[in-house]
Amino acid sequence: MHDTPIADRPPTGQGTGDDEAWRIRRTEADMDRLAETESIFALGNGWVGWRGTLDEGRPYGMPGTYLNGFHERRELDYPEDGYAFPQFSDTVISAPNAALIRLWVGGEPLDVRTGTLRTHERVLDLRAGVVERHTEWISPAGHGVRVRSVRLVSLARRPVAAVRWSVEPLDDAVEVRVCADLLANERVPERSDDPRAASVITDPLTAEYRHSDGYDGVLVHRTGHSEQRVAVAVAHDVHAPDGFAPGVDCTPDRLRLTLAGTLRAGERLQLTKFAAYECTPVDAVPPTELARQVVAEADAARAEGFDALLAGQRAALDVAWRTADVQLDGDDELQQAIRFSVFHLLQAGRADGDRTIPAKGLTGNGYDGHVLWDTEGYVLPVLTYLDPPLARSALRWRHAHLPEARERAAELRLTGASFPWRTLGGRECSGYWPAGTAGLHLNADVADAVLRYVGATGDEEFLAGAGLELLVETARLWHGFGHWSDTGTFHLHGVTGPDEYSALADDNLFTNLMARRNLRGAADAAERHPEAAARLGVDPAEVSAWRAAADAVFIPYDRKRGVHQQSAGFTEQPEWDFADTSDDDYPLLLHFPYLELYRKQVVKQADLVLAMQRCPGEFTADEKARNFAYYEARTVRDSSLSASPQAVLAAEVGHLDLAYDLFAESVLQDLADLGDKTGDGLHLASLAGAWLALVQGFGGMRDDRGVLSFDPRLPAAIDQLAFSLRWHGHRLRVTLTSGEARYELPDADPETGVEVWHHGEPLRVTGAGPVTRPMPEVPDPGPEPPSPPGRRPARRSAGDR
Amino acid sequence: MHDTPIADRPPTGQGTGDDEAWRIRRTEADMDRLAETESIFALGNGWVGWRGTLDEGRPYGMPGTYLNGFHERRELDYPEDGYAFPQFSDTVISAPNAALIRLWVGGEPLDVRTGTLRTHERVLDLRAGVVERHTEWISPAGHGVRVRSVRLVSLARRPVAAVRWSVEPLDDAVEVRVCADLLANERVPERSDDPRAASVITDPLTAEYRHSDGYDGVLVHRTGHSEQRVAVAVAHDVHAPDGFAPGVDCTPDRLRLTLAGTLRAGERLQLTKFAAYECTPVDAVPPTELARQVVAEADAARAEGFDALLAGQRAALDVAWRTADVQLDGDDELQQAIRFSVFHLLQAGRADGDRTIPAKGLTGNGYDGHVLWDTEGYVLPVLTYLDPPLARSALRWRHAHLPEARERAAELRLTGASFPWRTLGGRECSGYWPAGTAGLHLNADVADAVLRYVGATGDEEFLAGAGLELLVETARLWHGFGHWSDTGTFHLHGVTGPDEYSALADDNLFTNLMARRNLRGAADAAERHPEAAARLGVDPAEVSAWRAAADAVFIPYDRKRGVHQQSAGFTEQPEWDFADTSDDDYPLLLHFPYLELYRKQVVKQADLVLAMQRCPGEFTADEKARNFAYYEARTVRDSSLSASPQAVLAAEVGHLDLAYDLFAESVLQDLADLGDKTGDGLHLASLAGAWLALVQGFGGMRDDRGVLSFDPRLPAAIDQLAFSLRWHGHRLRVTLTSGEARYELPDADPETGVEVWHHGEPLRVTGAGPVTRPMPEVPDPGPEPPSPPGRRPARRSAGDR
């Protein structure tokens, strides 16, 4: 018990400008955005996630403690059922809440909605890995207290989260009662009508075992249908003045430590809670044994002490930030925002090979906590370069669920494997097949993530094992699904691409090009590892067939308009009537039927533009410029996945101010709650997209099948941009100003190096020192192509922020 | 009380061959097909429908008493909801069952599954309009009884149904107890997993009022959510030997008349029940008043007597059969079957202008009792010629629901009116929009039915009123929905045609051609009734716009293959792998995902072929032959709507044996339960399709915009085919043999007449006498085009029946 008391640490307060770029701050002014703040202040380590609720639990937006993979199962009911429609869905549910510390002052509960809030500030510290809170509150009866807390979810100890909390009188003595709860089946708000929100299950947990010992205790519960068990232990460390006699009360759903007494002026009550979590299938570990495990983990954390946990946070983050930090000079708010983005990606990515990264991480229950293509499509393209083992872990999780994907393909009467559009445990949980099962491109996104990871790391062992099997089974899906026309072209009919305002289209170009990449990648890998391929039943004939299909993939192109088609016939479809669409009509999916959306040239999210980002070599520069302009005019960005690829392509074709504004939209998606959905959890894909917008957009980074190139070009708003990448074991640092680009390997020997391309020139970068090159002029791309009326991103580039 | 007792009428027994063609008979051999028999023996008058359950209620398949429009409302739950997805569905529910007469013999209940069934026969008499039953049963303890009954749903008295029932000892005296029940909330079987079945609501009725008076009584109930009230009164007429003291017992859900005593040899107990039904919205009539109405109706029926009801049946049917009968010499089974088909159409069609004709009539609860496009697409094209006022009534029902259709169009952001794909009360109840809301062709089917009715009757008053408004609002739908291409063609994107193994296709040819017909029909009608049109806001510019769109409708055609495309690109889609599809894989929708079905060239039901039937002038004879062959090879007939249009086109292109086999499949759909779904109710569209197959197929009848023509051609299996049509107030009788075609107006003055075309030659047919013409040779159409393997209809044409 040698932890430093909270009050002895420097007050949070307003720091220096540089400090502020590492902190997210919310004050009493933000109290009406509770759910949003809970998501932004969510802490996690990939296994355990605590939403940023107030210590006292109320008011709340949506309380939640999420364990990666912990879920309940519910039946899906269809008004008109169909063959192979998923009959149940797995839905994330909250584990028992160990963060609660309720306070009564003179018999009145601390509630920031009552009394007088003299100060209320919470800070997420991106380097410390904690959320700090400082509240000064006068109760309705006039008793003043100062409450402070520091929370963390341990980056060093997987099952552990902890909070140190203190209360002291502001002036005169106050009578206080403190209840530190571990609470199962906490009440949650009703389900929203928005189809993108989570389904809510009331009282999902059944108590199996409870035990208390001194101030500490443990609760074990199980779910009703998903056959899962969860155990949570809490260990308390109390520093209280004399006269506070703790009492512990344990019921099936609640373990409560109560401390009551009088705090005189200058006295302080400090309570530290160490919580440990585990969940398993019910048949894996008996309740008492699971209880024993979590008690041991909570005890060990307490024995090590809260200061040690704090130190562990900082140490882990210091290592991570060495590669992950992005310096963006010229816009302090976006500098802060990009760090916030990367922080949450690092938190979410820390799951090991048994788990993956849901679309919301562990920050909320949006999309029922499901994993979507966001992971391979957006998050892994960042983690591959910031922390490659995290990308490998997520890919191993996909590989672990190949059996279900093969079963699903067989059920769908398809060949190979078909991964689920939405899932928690590997099985398809999507309840609307035109925008679920039909989104077959997810399989190519998985393959693409494999190829990217291998290309960036040279991890041939992974490629020969899990990687190859993922590539082969997805290639088999495409080969069996595709159709050879009479004229020898290879077609993919009736699929849904990334743009969810289209569905069941023929030859979606994104899907076609990604399938081509998948087929060729599988063929290359099989030839590089022929024995492993033979064990999967791959023979040269199959490889040849993949290559033939890849070579013959159909490319829908409109000669008259001189643009590629998002899918066959797209450019012949009716135009959307933007003149008759009001601002209140967005997002369109809440105001127009799919019948209208699907048949018209209105794009929810980058689709063809995303194809140009992912498969840059498939398009000429002219084609990219024409395509970008055509689709920019029709893309409404009703999806948070859209701004980033648009930013990357806008930068590539030279519209740097537009690119910057799109980057700003992506990076502020959650901090500014642009989509009004942040309360359901953070949009990890958008946060990842912000990094991609900077690095691929302004850094011009491309990694096309193992060749790393940069075509950097900075918008006027950025004075300097610096970022690092992991590349074949090295940390490559790139620093860009308007004048020059600097490439260096700060950690490498002078003799070792990597090859990169700068605006078409190959460079060898070694540990011997930086290589610099001038930034070429960006050719004038002409006037900025129009966005749909009212849908251009907010202008930040022009300085009106 | 002067009714003739049952036993004094001639026994049912086996009649003459001619009689048998007017009767449907089921014996103990059919006892394992209870639900199917209940549908086949269903009696109705368009307002009240009694399924053909056994008098004693058990065993049953699915008991049901349906009142047209009487329903409950239930919420629809979607795993992923979407804009304008219907949030509730109206579902037909059973009114209280007044048909029940339970019998105990020596304390043992009459149950045909126990004891010994010496005789068990039930007969549907198509001329008498009754179901007769004759059972001789020996109880397990050895007591023998003969039970007879005659049931009817009155064609003369709208709210009334009645049953006369008797029991007598077979040999020795027996002790009997008879319970005649009126039973609400009767138990029904669980819902099936088949998506095409009905949803089942348990205990939908809440008792509001009950009253008994002597042997008679009344129950009034209301529904929980749909705000409807139903009242049923029963009046009894008892003929019993001395010693039978009746007792009446009335509980909220059951009114029971009990008769107990001993029947000696030669004695008989006879009970006649007269039931009367009404349902209304709950705010229309109070419970006691509704009770008074139905009691008065039941009393009046009893006062008139059962024999009078029997006479009323026969009189109504005699009138109807004069036009409706079809004589088919050469195949006794199909002769019987076509009469069965027409009988059920006449029963179902008898609703007046407040109601319409659901897809199952009132014979079952399949499709939740909903009205689909079956009505305008199949049933009205028959009723228009057999009994035009019935067609007008159904169209008036559509017109009465124009307000909801306009609201729906506005909700869908469309112009004009959009009628619901499935409905009971006018609102969309379809829970799967790609095969519901997207089936916009329903609106053109409604317009087509209007045009056909007006063309056949010359009913300008209807056209100037409801007809015009229906035409105008549907034309406005198409005009707003359509898209003008750069090259001046008019397109309908993203719709679903009749074939439900395709969805959301561009330029479905059926839809395009029917929309053209709709637009031109509206333009013609508006010009014929300019003042009425002006009141609807139609001006010459709008009419011109309709005509321009109609003229420019895009016709998808594959030049290489020389066939029309079901929708744009259809013939480029992957072929279905029939070689790898087993017999057990049908119907495909239960074994393959829509992902596979939609993107491949596999056709559930006639679509392009139906277009050739409905819009014959849009295709040359050569095109019809090539199209028919192409689509025949890809049409699996997983829908009962398919055989009829295929038969019509097979006949037109000269494949008369195939046409005959398809006709047989259509006409036997329910009598042979070919789809194993007859238990849910009869397929009225298939029954109507059977008539169309004969009259349009072999009769070669076409009615293209008011011109009535015949190109008759008989298959070898038919010696003579005779049918009648109502045409502009006349009854036109057509009699076809292999040698000649005879046209006559048997009821007309010698001076009045009509013009018809016979194989391209105009004829004037008057009351002066028949006009005969030779039947031309049918040119050899070449070999019969193949059907998908295993999917050719059973060969009946070759005589192997």
From TrEMBL, chains A, B:
Residues involved in substrate binding: W373, D374, K604, Q605
Tagged with keyword Hydrolase: yes
GO molecular function terms noted in the UniProt entry: carbohydrate binding; glycosyltransferase activity; hydrolase activity, hydrolyzing O-glycosyl compounds
Segments forming domain Glycoside hydrolase family 65 C-terminal: 701-765
Pfam entry (one): Glyco_hydro_65N
InterPro entries according to UniProt: 6-hairpin_glycosidase_sf, 6hp_glycosidase-like_sf, Gal_mutarotase_sf_dom, GH65_N, Glyco_hydro_65_C, Glyco_hydro_65_M, Glyco_hydro_65_N, Malt_Pase/Glycosyl_Hdrlase
GO biological process terms, semicolon-separated: carbohydrate metabolic process
Every Glycoside hydrolase family 65 N-terminal domain range: 27-277
Residue ranges of the region described as Disordered: 761-801
Biased amino acid composition, Pro residues: 776-791
Domain of life: Bacteria
Active site: residue positions: E500 (proton donor)
Keyword field: Glycosidase, Hydrolase
UniProt record similarity statement: Belongs to the glycosyl hydrolase 65 family.
PANTHER family assigned to the protein according to its UniProt record, in alphabetical order: GLYCOSYL HYDROLASE-RELATED (PTHR11051), GLYCOSYL TRANSFERASE (PTHR11051:SF13)
Record-given protein name: Alpha,alpha-trehalose phosphorylase
